Amino acid sequence: MLCIVNRFITFAGFTAINLFGLIFVRRGREFTDTDMRHEQIHTRQMLELLIIPFYLIYIIEWLLRLAQTRNLLIAYRRISFEREAYLHQSDPDYLLHRRPYAWLS
Fold it and tell me: pTM here?
Protein backbone atom coordinates (compact mmCIF):
# COMPACT_ATOMS: atom_id res chain seq x y z
CA MET A 1 0.00 0.00 0.00
CA LEU A 2 1.22 3.47 -0.84
CA CYS A 3 1.69 5.81 2.13
CA ILE A 4 1.86 9.55 1.51
CA VAL A 5 3.24 11.61 4.37
CA ASN A 6 1.74 15.10 4.44
CA ARG A 7 0.45 17.79 6.78
CA PHE A 8 -2.93 18.44 5.18
CA ILE A 9 -4.91 15.23 4.52
CA THR A 10 -5.95 13.76 7.86
CA PHE A 11 -8.21 15.00 10.59
CA ALA A 12 -6.54 16.61 13.57
CA GLY A 13 -5.74 14.02 16.21
CA PHE A 14 -5.62 11.14 13.74
CA THR A 15 -2.46 9.52 12.41
CA ALA A 16 -3.73 8.42 9.00
CA ILE A 17 -6.66 8.20 6.64
CA ASN A 18 -7.27 5.64 3.90
CA LEU A 19 -8.72 7.17 0.75
CA PHE A 20 -9.35 4.69 -2.04
CA GLY A 21 -6.49 2.48 -0.86
CA LEU A 22 -3.96 5.30 -0.53
CA ILE A 23 -2.80 5.94 3.02
CA PHE A 24 -2.27 9.59 3.95
CA VAL A 25 -0.15 9.87 7.10
CA ARG A 26 0.10 13.09 9.10
CA ARG A 27 3.66 14.41 9.10
CA GLY A 28 5.30 14.07 12.50
CA ARG A 29 3.08 11.18 13.62
CA GLU A 30 4.44 7.67 14.11
CA PHE A 31 2.81 5.22 11.69
CA THR A 32 3.20 1.73 13.16
CA ASP A 33 2.64 -1.77 11.82
CA THR A 34 -0.58 -1.81 13.84
CA ASP A 35 -1.73 1.36 12.06
CA MET A 36 -0.90 -0.25 8.70
CA ARG A 37 -2.92 -3.37 9.55
CA HIS A 38 -5.86 -1.15 10.57
CA GLU A 39 -5.75 0.58 7.17
CA GLN A 40 -5.31 -2.73 5.33
CA ILE A 41 -8.52 -3.97 6.96
CA HIS A 42 -10.26 -0.85 5.65
CA THR A 43 -8.90 -1.50 2.18
CA ARG A 44 -10.32 -5.04 2.26
CA GLN A 45 -13.68 -3.61 3.39
CA MET A 46 -13.60 -1.10 0.53
CA LEU A 47 -12.81 -3.74 -2.07
CA GLU A 48 -15.58 -6.10 -0.98
CA LEU A 49 -18.09 -3.22 -1.24
CA LEU A 50 -16.66 -1.87 -4.53
CA ILE A 51 -15.32 1.31 -2.86
CA ILE A 52 -18.10 3.91 -3.27
CA PRO A 53 -20.72 1.98 -1.24
CA PHE A 54 -18.11 1.66 1.53
CA TYR A 55 -17.90 5.44 1.84
CA LEU A 56 -21.68 5.88 1.63
CA ILE A 57 -22.30 3.31 4.36
CA TYR A 58 -19.45 4.76 6.44
CA ILE A 59 -20.84 8.30 6.34
CA ILE A 60 -24.47 7.26 6.91
CA GLU A 61 -23.50 5.05 9.83
CA TRP A 62 -21.35 7.81 11.34
CA LEU A 63 -24.25 10.27 11.09
CA LEU A 64 -26.62 7.79 12.75
CA ARG A 65 -24.09 7.09 15.53
CA LEU A 66 -23.54 10.82 15.97
CA ALA A 67 -27.29 11.38 16.37
CA GLN A 68 -27.34 8.62 19.00
CA THR A 69 -24.25 9.65 20.97
CA ARG A 70 -23.87 13.38 20.22
CA ASN A 71 -20.11 12.82 20.42
CA LEU A 72 -17.86 12.89 17.34
CA LEU A 73 -15.22 10.47 18.62
CA ILE A 74 -17.65 7.95 20.14
CA ALA A 75 -19.70 8.00 16.93
CA TYR A 76 -16.53 7.31 14.93
CA ARG A 77 -15.45 4.42 17.18
CA ARG A 78 -18.91 2.81 16.91
CA ILE A 79 -18.90 2.63 13.10
CA SER A 80 -18.96 -1.08 12.22
CA PHE A 81 -15.97 -0.74 9.86
CA GLU A 82 -13.93 0.89 12.63
CA ARG A 83 -14.99 -1.67 15.22
CA GLU A 84 -13.68 -4.47 13.02
CA ALA A 85 -10.44 -2.63 12.24
CA TYR A 86 -9.72 -1.72 15.87
CA LEU A 87 -10.63 -5.18 17.13
CA HIS A 88 -8.23 -6.97 14.76
CA GLN A 89 -5.46 -4.45 14.05
CA SER A 90 -3.07 -6.23 16.42
CA ASP A 91 -3.44 -9.59 14.67
CA PRO A 92 -0.87 -9.83 11.86
CA ASP A 93 -2.69 -12.85 10.37
CA TYR A 94 -6.21 -11.48 10.52
CA LEU A 95 -6.58 -10.78 6.80
CA LEU A 96 -5.46 -14.34 6.02
CA HIS A 97 -8.53 -15.81 7.75
CA ARG A 98 -10.98 -12.88 7.66
CA ARG A 99 -14.44 -13.75 6.36
CA PRO A 100 -16.05 -11.47 3.79
CA TYR A 101 -18.31 -8.80 5.30
CA ALA A 102 -16.91 -9.47 8.78
CA TRP A 103 -17.78 -5.88 9.67
CA LEU A 104 -21.46 -6.90 9.77
CA SER A 105 -21.01 -9.12 12.82
Answer: 0.95
